[in-house]
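Notes to self after the Tuesday call (sharing in case useful).
The group wants a holo model before anyone commits to mutagenesis around the pocket. I volunteered. Ligand is zinc ion. Logging inputs and output together so the record is complete.
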Amino acid sequence: VKTLSLVPQSSSGWNLDGVHRRNLSAVLNIVRSSGAVTRAELARVTGLNRSTIGALVAELVELRLVDEGGTDAVHQIGRPSHVITPGGRTVALAVHPSLDAVTISLVGLDGQVIKRVRYETVGTLGVNEVVNVVAAVVAGMRDELESAYSCLGVGLAVPGLVRSGDGLVDLASRMGWRRAPLAQMLGEALRMPVVAASDAVAGAMAETTFGVGAGVGNLVYLEGSGTGIRGAVISNGALLAGERGYAGELGHTLVKTGGAPCACGAEGCLDAEVQLSDLVEAMGLPAGSGPRADDELAEMLASPGLPAGLRHVVDDQLDLLAVTVRNAVNLFNPQLIVLGGFLGVLHQTDPSRLENAVAWSAMRGSRDSVRIVRSSSGGDLVAVGAAQLVFAPIVNDPSLVRAAAG
Ligand SMILES: [Zn+2]
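Result:
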């Protein structure tokens, strides 16, 4: 259980209502990050007295954001205390289109995937087709959703650049999407609020909430898949968004002068120079028959004595990735660099290569405190992060649930 600051962040919020909302948020944050906690522990961590904690918990129970169950068998000392867990019936839908599938998941407030539907496609879908697929799948779930759950909205993780505010997909080059209002279209089809961001933003949010980056305030996340490479930056605990939400787009940093043309219009971007398809080709597999999951790729690359040609491609990709990682270390001074998808697998084949490159080339002040890790394994990371796009504003201000309901 980490300690959270209860001090108001802005002077404008220095009133009783603001303090109350921040305390609700702090309690909900602790319940989510710990998974289960007693009132006594909440009082100890927040420094609030037990009657205040009782009132805050009761309000969160009423909002269905936490559940309060039986006595905790683990904590025998002192008075028995009820165990508080994240609201089991409060969920979000997560939508993640990719090259060969659309995945729709039902994710609980505790970050657990309750249900997952992977709709495999022949070829890459247009945005209209994605909306139709999601609408059909959600229609099939609607009875269960309405009777058993309280669904707070839809989180859309896009393999591309997404404008904050309206969720416009500015560019998802390998999907063939440019300036596509996918979030708006989904919202109209489903009649639910939709929050969209790139899959790298989703990955970063999942990692900092439940994964390898839990509790880490300064983190850089890079996601690599057949749809390209995208980045996200968490700085001092907040997502670095920039003017329109495009900040942190490390996939389009220059790694090779005069390099390959990139879909963004420039040349020599990481996204253009380091491609999963080159790796699959070097493995001698026909296009489209590559590994179906990152762990499968990891297994293939873990075998001792890789053919020289494949070793060369892996080394080359790691050296190009090192340029972006070095720049990220110098620019953002992160505690953690998290590599998702095939980038994490590349790193895992030879961790010292990237670490040595950063140790040699990044500025001393920043490089000394940074760690480079592969993202939390499991195919659900992006879904959990997409749901977190919906949950995050509510965890930040739980009273939004009441405002939305009434
Ligand atoms: Zn580019």
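Two things stood out.
Residues 102 and 119 are 5 Å apart (CA to CA).
Residues 308-332 form the longest helix (25 residues).
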